[in-house]
Design brief:
Organism: Haloarcula marismortui ATCC 33799
Number of strands: 2
Strand order of the largest sheet: 1-2
Strand content: 5-15%
Number of domains: 1
Protein name: SpoVT-AbrB domain-containing protein
Distance between the termini: 52 Å
Shape: flat
Region (Disordered): 68-91
């Protein structure tokens, strides 16, 4: 399928494509092409469906707190590795 932009740079998708993929897209730019990636109307629900029951029963706030804790642990571990390397120790 080919489409062309209009004089304002807009792309028009057929109603069949919009019904199938939605009306919002991320545009991903590569060196040699662009890619349209559909944005789910409920991104959190899409993540929950993709992850299965891994987050079952956890609130958004609980997930955020867990992510913050993991990020802090990862940062501290990276800091310690860097410190050891700077001191001439092995990684």
């Amino acid at each position: 399928m080919s489409v062309e932009t209009d004089s304002h740079g807009r792309l028009y998708l057929s109603s069949e494509l919009r019904q199938k993929y939605g009306e919002k897209f991320h545009i991903v730019e590569y060196e040699d092409r662009l890619e349209l990636v559909p944005i789910d109307e409920d991104p959190l629900q899409a993540v929950r469906e993709a992850a299965g029951d891994a987050f079952e029963g956890e609130s958004i706030e609980e997930l955020r707190e867990r992510a913050r804790e993991q990020a802090k642990e990862d940062a501290e571990a990276g800091f310690e590795r860097g410190k050891r390397t700077a001191e001439g120790g092995n990684e």
